[in-house]
């Protein structure tokens, strides 16, 4: 019987599917060394974002046929190394789209109404009504960077809330944007004019530190920025400085250049205008079930000798 290692927590629905065709070992929290020492026993590997599948892991994976990433980003897998060894890498491109989009919208609303800060005040007996006067999203301009699956859903909901939506995405056709009632712009115009900017792009060499001190200085002092995409796309020290210095009004961040976020990160010291969450974009029960089923089915099919789509 085939063997599958599940090295991050995944929804039981995925484990049930894998169990139809394989012995499933759930071992979240393995150290990199432990992973290298056990991976040789397995035909399949199922992960979320916690496991780093390095070239060293792949070199030790003598029986491995498939790596399934229960989520979108395969940036924690050395895909070229896997491909070279003939190991398929599959993901779930759509299973957590709605969850991530709704998290970005939650960030925009919490930021605008200071929900986390007001709640923290209530917990210690305060009743700060004046301190937390907020802003409405209605009639404000939202700039979406990356009008793909998640960016498009955010754009649709924002339109329904009465926002004007502009977007920067060099790979999207103008008529597709037009259908969504979104106007495509250049990046500099988007940052200069938007009241809210939300990022929905992958981390690539072109997007690394895309949002830096220079770009932040072009934003309105009332503007807020949300990153529920990938860490490293924004310069975290520059964001902290921009909020502390009044260059922008605030930011909502879910993802970080290095995760977990360092305890001494300058972001943790910002007192007002910042909402931080620990990479929760895909963390809904619905999304976790979707991605687990999607990826487990692909692993099952490959172990049965059927074709699968690759990431
Ligand atoms: P997608 O591929 O559907 O969309 C990405 C869009 O970015 C595409 O339309 C592409 O044309 C565009 N793009 C690429 N390079 C660009 C650039 N330099 N400038 C502007 N646009 C550019 O992907 P998606 O499913 O919408 O996911 C978006 C991001 O969100 C990914 O990085 C994904 O890993 C991340 N994500 C995070 C969470 C989370 O938990 N926070 C959950 C799901 C997805
Ligand atoms: C993804 O790429 O799917 C998200 O970052 C969510 C996750 O890591 O589970």
From TrEMBL:
The keyword NAD applies. GO terms for molecular function: NAD binding; phosphoglycerate dehydrogenase activity. It catalyses: (R)-2-hydroxyglutarate + NAD(+) = 2-oxoglutarate + NADH + H(+); (2R)-3-phosphoglycerate + NAD(+) = 3-phosphooxypyruvate + NADH + H(+). It is an enzyme of class 1 (oxidoreductase). Signal peptide: none annotated. Pathway: Amino-acid biosynthesis; L-serine biosynthesis; L-serine from 3-phospho-D-glycerate: step 1/3. Its EC number is 1.1.1.95. Keywords: Amino-acid biosynthesis, NAD, Oxidoreductase, Serine biosynthesis. GO terms for biological process: L-serine biosynthetic process. Catalyzes the reversible oxidation of 3-phospho-D-glycerate to 3-phosphonooxypyruvate, the first step of the phosphorylated L-serine biosynthesis pathway. Also catalyzes the reversible oxidation of 2-hydroxyglutarate to 2-oxoglutarate. Belongs to the D-isomer specific 2-hydroxyacid dehydrogenase family. This is D-3-phosphoglycerate dehydrogenase. It comes from Parasynechococcus marenigrum (strain WH8102). The chain holds residues 1 to 311 of 528 of the full protein.
């Amino acid at each position: 019987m085939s063997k599958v290692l599940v090295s991050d927590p995944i929804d039981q629905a995925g484990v049930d599917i894998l169990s139809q065709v394989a012995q499933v070992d759930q071992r979240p929290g393995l150290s990199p060394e432990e992973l290298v020492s056990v991976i040789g026993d397995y035909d399949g590997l199922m992960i979320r974002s916690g496991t780093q599948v390095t070239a060293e892991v792949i070199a030790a994976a003598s029986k491995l046929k498939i790596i399934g990433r229960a989520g979108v980003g395969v940036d924690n897998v050395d895909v070229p190394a896997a491909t070279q060894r003939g190991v398929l890498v599959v993901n779930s491109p759509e299973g957590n789209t709605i969850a991530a989009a709704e998290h970005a919208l939650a960030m925009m609303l919490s930021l605008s109404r200071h929900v986390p800060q007001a709640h923290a005040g209530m917990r210690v007996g305060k009743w700060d009504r004046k301190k937390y006067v907020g802003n409405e999203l209605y009639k404000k301009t939202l700039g979406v960077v990356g009008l793909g699956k998640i960016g498009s859903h955010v754009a649709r909901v924002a339109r329904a809330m009465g926002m004007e939506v502009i977007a920067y995405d060099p790979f999207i056709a103008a008529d597709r944007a037009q259908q969504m009632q979104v106007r495509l712009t250049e990046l500099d115009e988007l940052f200069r004019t938007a009241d809210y900017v939300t990022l929905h792009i992958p981390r690539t060499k072109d997007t690394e530190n895309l949002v830096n001190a220079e770009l932040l200085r072009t934003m309105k002092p009332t503007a807020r920025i949300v990153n529920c995409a990938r860490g490293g796309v924004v310069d975290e020290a520059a964001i902290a400085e921009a909020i502390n210095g009044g260059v922008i009004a605030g930011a909502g961040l879910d993802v970080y250049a290095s995760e977990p976020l360092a305890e001494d990160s300058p972001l943790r010291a910002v007192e007002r205008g910042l909402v931080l969450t620990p990479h929760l974009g895909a963390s809904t029960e619905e999304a976790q079930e979707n991605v687990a089923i999607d990826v487990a089915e692909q692993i099952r099919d490959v172990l049965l000798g059927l074709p699968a789509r690759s990431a």
